[in-house]
C-alpha cells in the first residue's frame, strides 16, 4: 500500500500538496508569510488537524535551507528577546488544541493575522522612521516583543501560522530584507523543531504522516532555490508589500474557509 492510498489522496491532490511544499521553500527564502497558502492547501487536501502534523516536517526542511542561505544575517539579540514569550505561546497553543475544534482554530488564527496586518499598516502610516533592530531593547520594544512572541508561539503551534505574525513583528522593528530573512530563518528552525514533541504527543505526527513527508520534502528544495533567485530581484518596498499582502490573504483564507 503506497502513501497516497494510506491518506486517500488523488493524483491531483498530491500535485496540490507538492505545489504547497514548493511554496514552503519559496516562502522560507523569499517572501516569509506566503506559506499561509500552503497551510490552506494542506488543510483542504488532508484532515484539518492532521494537516498540521504533516506540514511541520516540510516547514522544518524549508527552515534548514533558509538557515544555510541566510545564516550570516540573523540578529540574535532579537531572537533571545522573543524565545521566552514564544515558549509560553507554544504551551498555550498546545492546551488550546486539546479542546478546540477546527472551526475555532481557523477563526482565531485568521482574526489574529488580520489584526497583526492592520496594526503594522497603521504603524507604518503614523511612524516617522522605522526603528533600528539594535534599538528595540527599550521598554516599549520589550513589551512589543513579548506580545508578538506569545501570539507567534500560539499561532505556530495551533496552525503552523506563526510566520505572518513574526513577519509583522520584524517589519515593525525595522528589519531590512536580508536581516529579516536571516532572523526569521533561525527563529522558525528552533521553534518548529521544539514543536515536534508536542505535535507527536497530540498524535499529529506518526508513521503515516512521516511517509507522506518523505514524498513531499523533495519539492521544498527547488522552491528554496527559486526564492533565493527571486529575493535579490525584489526591492525592499515591494518585499514588505508582498509580506503584508500574504498575511492578509492567509488571514482571510482561514476566516472564510
TrEMBL record:
It comes from the Bacteria. It comes from Streptomyces canarius. This is Probable membrane transporter protein. It is a multi-pass membrane protein. InterPro entries: TM_pro_TauE-like, TSUP. It is found in: Cell membrane. Signal peptide: none annotated. Belongs to the 4-toluene sulfonate uptake permease (TSUP) (TC 2.A.102) family. The chain crosses the membrane at residues 49-70, 82-99, 105-122, 148-172, 178-198, 210-232, 238-256. The keyword Cell membrane applies. Keywords: Cell membrane, Membrane, Transmembrane, Transmembrane helix, Transport. The keyword Transmembrane helix applies.
